[in-house]
Write a structure and sequence with these properties.
The complex is a heterodimer. By secondary structure, chain A is mostly helical. Helix content of chain A is about 70%, strand content about 0%. The longest helix of chain A has about 35 residues. The radius of gyration of chain A is 27 Å and the shape is flat. Chain A starts with a helix and ends in a 6-residue tail after the last helix. By secondary structure, chain B is of the alpha/beta class. Chain B is globular, with a radius of gyration of 24 Å. The chains are: A mainly alpha, B alpha/beta.
Chain lengths: ~325, ~425
């Protein structure tokens, strides 16, 4: 042992120990990798992901195949395997189907609006010299304010005799926004876009810091105007941030709950603003059928994964 | 490297799923609530509602019991905050940390709590059924579970009536002491007068939102009155897709269509804020509005008009449940009887204005009703109340009705009769499930 150690210190080129002495180290390296301490650092996060995401997700999948309900510890309960029954119930339930259509409408409005507004505002904010901090904080305040508080303000603004209708006068929709079957979901989409905008502006601001100045100088030298520079330099340069914004706003938007719960009185009118997560809450928590709620959740996860994959494929380009 | 990572990830995922499956896939016997009977004795915990008046009642009740029972002390607290008491209690049952007694158990949630194995059958105590029947009389029958046992003690009701603002009625040229509100036609005409005269922005403003319980404060009281006490579901079948149900629905539809009731959610208390001239409320409203509004109370209307002493309404009851997580169930049962005895019921009436569900309430507490005549009508009404049916899938049943109501009555879409019949058919299926 001593000889081998000395040799290694002297030249570092000694051949690997042969025979029985080398095998345990190889096995250890194969199992733990070249830097075992890396495992030590990654274990807490791995445990977190397992406990907070993987296990509940696996449990939800298990529940979705059973006639499950929550029971007291030690209670004798029957939770039979029901195969695809919960999925059949979900896919044939008009309320659930409508909620998926609603969330589709929401995403079609919310995601593009979020990307365009946050990029444009971040670009403008990046050029502002005076009052930059004030403006950044102003955009960020709605994001950090509790939805419950902000919803109250919007209810006053968009009620029948609210400020928005006062301004619009005869152009105001009848019935008013939040109880109008056509406008309820777009109203929620506008609200969520406005509320989340500060966060996405922040992401774009960080991305804009990394765009090389030389690109703008080259564009200016070539005679590009402001709009042309924005289209040909800024937009391509922040594409990784755009992919992130699209993915995050899709995932967060698909989990919409608070706004239809509070803003439109539980997904009204007539379910026109009910979201899949709101229906999950009703079925799983209020009505005591977690199996059906879990099946909705699994379908939602699969659809979000599909949408995210399509977005990454078509928006992400070659970005990794 | 990549292959090893994939193998490790797959192994970890499989381990997680196996652990989950092991946690969930256990038993295969059916359940009901637990049996109490010969539970132990010792300290217990209880939860009560968080409104000021009930906290005052709860504190004095606990103090009175603890002073007499040094070896069986009560530790009391308000029900923890949550989206609703029912969700908090359901979570506590699942976690196994529910208290012994909860003095705010909603009848609509009892079938689910029972199915969860969270409730002790009060019938399993030797004097269980006798005590419930002796205290509440025939009205207690509504609270029996499908197997004939009591998993809740009928405690107090808040029979709902029409509250009206006398000043607004006077401003509209209506008689504030004897307003025409007995029939649907009278009520509608009164409502039109109130709004067209400018005395009130809206005649009445029940919450138009989609929560499952909102029909308890628009449809159900009037349906109980119209039918002389029919429940929403009887013998496993929905009852409301009949002439009575349709006339109640048409009455409310007229109010919404004519703008006499609002389709928008009001942020606050529309009656207290002078935005509506009427409200459907229980006796709790007397202490809330009493000093600020000159109010009057009238029974809910019916199509032909019904005498006040024959009018039924919704009870809006809250009951007491004894929970299986309780170790000292014998003590809990004694506390339950102590808290619902004649003395404590009298104090409940005095401190909260809510009606204990005991027989002949006005005759049992004549002094109270003589000193508080405002409560007399509610005390009398308490004898004619209808509860939410004690059936499986109770919340889903009410949500089904609410969705149909929201569509065809509040927003006036589709055919009213078809909508009610569709909801009734769906509810038949839900109520028939175990």
């Amino acid at each position: 042992m001593t000889v081998v150690d000395t040799g290694a210190r002297a030249g570092g080129a000694a051949p690997p120990p042969a025979g029985r002495r080398g095998r345990p180290r190889d096995r250890r390296r194969r199992l733990l990798g070249r830097n075992p301490s890396g495992l030590l650092f990654s274990t807490p996060y791995l445990a977190y992901v397992l406990v907070v995401f993987a296990v509940p997700l696996g449990f939800a999948v298990w529940i979705s195949f059973h006639d499950y309900f929550f029971a007291a510890p030690g209670a004798d309960v029957d939770r039979p395997f029901v195969g695809l029954d919960n999925y059949t119930d979900v896919l044939t339930d008009p309320d659930v189907r409508r909620s998926f259509v609603n969330i589709g409408i929401f995403l079609v409005i919310n995601v593009p609006l979020t990307v365009v507004l946050s990029l444009v505002l971040a670009t403008l904010l990046n050029q502002v010299v005076r009052g930059r901090v004030f403006l950044r904080v102003s955009f960020y305040v709605p994001y950090v304010t509790a939805s419950v508080a902000v919803v109250g303000v919007w209810l006053f603004l968009f009620s029948g005799d609210g400020l928005v209708n006062e301004v619009l006068g005869p152009l105001a929709p009848d019935p008013p926004w939040l109880i109008n079957s056509f406008w309820a979901m777009p109203s929620i989409a506008f609200f969520v876009t406005w509320k989340q905008l500060g966060f996405y502006i922040l992401l774009y601001l960080a991305a804009l810091q990394n765009v090389p100045r030389e690109l703008y100088e080259a564009a200016a030298t070539d005679g590009a105007g402001r709009l042309r520079t924005f289209r040909s330099v800024t937009v391509p340069a922040v594409r990784p941030a755009t992919v992130l914004v699209v993915l995050l706003s899709t995932i967060i938007g698909a989990n919409l709950f608070t706004e239809p719960y509070l803003l439109t009185g539980g997904g009204g009118p007539n379910g026109a603003s009910a979201s899949p997560v709101l229906i999950m809450y009703q079925r799983g928590i209020e009505q005591g059928t977690p199996g059906v709620a879990a099946a909705i959740g699994v379908v939602l996860v699969l659809l979000v994964l599909l949408v995210a994959w399509l977005q990454r494929r078509f928006v992400g380009g070659g970005e990794s | 490297m990549q292959r090893r990572t994939r193998v490790t990830a797959a192994a970890l995922t499989a381990a997680g799923l196996l652990a989950v499956t092991a946690c969930g896939g256990d038993d295969d016997a059916s359940t009901g609530g637990g049996d109490g009977g010969d539970g132990g004795r010792g300290d217990i915990t209880i939860w009560y509602s968080n409104n000021e008046a009930e906290v005052a009642w709860g504190e004095q009740m606990v103090q009175a019991w603890n002073a007499e029972h040094p070896d069986e002390q009560i530790e009391a607290q308000e029900i923890p905050a949550g989206a609703s008491s029912e969700e908090v209690i359901g979570a506590a049952i699942t976690a196994g940390n529910a208290p012994c007694l909860i003095f705010n158990t909603a009848p609509v949630a009892v079938p689910d709590f029972e199915r969860q194995g969270g409730l002790v059958s009060l019938s399993s105590f030797d004097d269980g059924d006798d005590y419930v029947a002796a205290r509440s009389g025939d009205i207690a029958e509504q609270y029996r579970s499908a197997n004939g046992e009591y998993f809740q003690l009928p405690w107090k009701s808040n029979p709902v009536m029409i509250f009206y603002n006398k000043e607004m009625f006077a401003a509209a040229g209506l008689d504030p002491e004897n307003p025409p509100l007995g029939t649907y036609d009278e009520f509608l005409e009164t409502a039109r007068t109130l709004v067209s005269s400018g005395a009130a922005p809206k005649a009445i403003w029940p919450a138009p939102t989609s929560e499952f319980f909102q029909n308890w404060f628009d449809f159900y009281p009037l349906y109980a009155a119209e039918t002389g006490g029919a429940a929403l579901v009887e013998d496993g079948s929905a009852t409301f897709a009949d002439d009575a149900g349709r006339s109640v629905a048409e009455f409310w539809k007229s109010l919404y269509d004519e703008g006499l009731a609002s389709r928008e959610t009001y942020q606050g208390d529309s009656f207290a804020d002078g935005q509506a001239a009427m409200a459907i409320v229980g006796p709790w409203a007397i202490s809330v509005y009493g000093e600020n509004i000159a109010w009057g109370a009238a029974p809910v209307p019916t199509s032909a008009g019904t005498a006040a002493d024959q009018t039924y309404t919704f009870s809006d009851a809250k009951n007491i449940g004894l929970y299986t997580a309780c170790e000292n169930q014998a003590t809990a049962w004694d506390v339950l009887k102590f808290a619902t005895g004649q003395e404590q019921d009298g104090l409940l009436l005095e401190l909260t204005g809510q009606m204990p569900m005991r027989q002949d309430l006005p005759g049992t507490y004549p002094d109270y009703f003589a000193a508080n005549p405002a409560y007399e009508a509610f005390g009398d009404q308490a004898a004619r109340t209808v509860e939410v049916p004690n059936i499986p899938n109770a919340v889903a049943v009410w949500q089904t009705l609410r969705d149909a109501w929201s569509q065809s009555v509040i927003f006036g879409e589709g055919d009213l009769q078809e909508s009610l019949q569709g909801a009734a058919d769906e509810i038949d299926g839900l109520a028939g499930q175990s």
